Amino acid sequence: MEAQQFPSSAIQGASTGVERMLENLPLMIAGVWSDERELQLEATTQFRKLLAVERSRPIDVVIQSGVVPKFVEFLKREDYPQIQFEAAWALTNIASGTLDHVRVVIESGAVPIFVRLIGSPCDDVREQAVWALGNVAGESPKNRDLVLGQGALIPLLQQVNEHAKLSMLRIATWTLSSFCKGKPGPPFEQIRPVLPALERLIHSTDEEVMTDVCWALSYLSDGTTDKIQAVVDANVCPRLAELLMNPYPSVVIPALRTVGNICTGNDMQTQIIMNHQLLPCLLNLLTKNHKESIKKEACWTISNITAGNTDQIQAVIAAEIIGPLVHLLQTAEFDIKKGAAWAISNAVDGGTDEQIKYLVGQGCIRPLCDLLVCPGTCPDPRIVTVCLKGLENILKVGEAEKNLGTTGGVNVYAQLIDEAEGLEKIKNLKSHDNTEINEKAVKILETYWMEDDDKPLPPGDAASAADSSKERKLVSQLSGHLEMLLVNPPKVEIMFLEKGL
């Protein structure tokens, strides 16, 4: 019996729109269910093209047509790699849809077959299987853990070798980043084997590979000090610092995020990344014509360094970063000002008296005072608290100088705050709705300024112990990093590349 042939109109449908292709849907369905392998391949190819249309992809129509189980069946056709490839591609595009669409692919039993196909002798089939698994894993932590539970990681890592084509390296790296991301994160011991591969891949010069490696590292380093240590031990710090000077913002942003995460760790972990010329790189990001999102991330990273020990604060001072920070605190968009305020306040909180005097000399008082209007110039009450705390620590140094008799019996920093209109703003904060803010304002006024009856009040507890480095970093991380809406997330899982069309 002669095989039924598709009319030319069906072939042309790919270039004349979804509507034209849908006119041939019954014929396409019949072809998938045919016993003729040529018809099966042709029909599966048409479905793949239909699903590859970027706009108005009729995923639901394809699912409702009942062909998904046949596509999964075609994945098993080791004797027919062409149909394996087309079926895998069609399922990949279905898995690029909604959570419900991904669920259809999972419930069809495709995931374990895709895992097996990572070892296919056909390059195209291998790549498409890896891509499909990345789409499934990237949809949710539950799906990610399901894919990892099917044993996908080790065979995928085996594909990342010196003989791999660039196309495979790009897809594999993106899929590895999907395996690492999500909250809660994957079990760390399960995902730890990815680190040596990421260390090799980070030396790539390909923008896509570098970008996705850095995103993967940012996910792995976003956590406790033991996770940060695992990333540090992978010997990626030298390259991460280099990538901060990369010309591609898509690379700089996740590299900077990873560096910032490392700096939320303990002082030793922070020092390791600092030892690779980190501070000159951060200075460049603050002062050159970079995107606002990059400057915001740079400020957050510096805030975690200034939350460290006095030697690390001194290193920031020596790198001449304070001046640019103060400038951003005065002139930048509010999201950048937040990070700069944290960086200055942390330095004041943990710095020596001499370091605090240097910060004052760089002009930090006025911009800190300017942020004491909430709502107004500062829509975030937490930043008002940060600025108040910074000013309070500055006042403590001024009071100590006054008590030493070196300033003519005057707290010169209290005078500077008054001249910067800070005193009036602090008084206004006494009636702020936020309890922490109004109590802090009252304490500062009672300690460093006279009440209306002109009777000086006792100095109060002007020497409360400074927060530990670890505590300052935790506050900076929670109120800075996690509150910042970060742009340019990793590559969107929905990918439509018309290969060979």
From TrEMBL:
GO biological process: one example: protein import into nucleus
Alphabetized InterPro entries for the sequence: ARM-like (IPR011989), ARM-type_fold (IPR016024), Arm_3 (IPR032413), Armadillo (IPR000225), Importin_alpha (IPR024931)
Family label: Belongs to the importin alpha family.
Gene Ontology CC annotation, any one: cytoplasm
GO MF, any single term: nuclear import signal receptor activity
UniProtKB keywords: Protein transport, Repeat, Transport
Ranges occupied by ARM repeats: 66-109, 109-151
Protein name: Importin subunit alpha
Source organism (scientific name): Papaver somniferum
Pfam families reported in the protein's UniProt record: Arm, Arm_3
Residue stretches in coiled coil: none
Phylogenetic lineage: Eukaryota, Viridiplantae, Streptophyta, Embryophyta, Tracheophyta
PANTHER family: IMPORTIN ALPHA
SMART domains linked to this entry: ARM
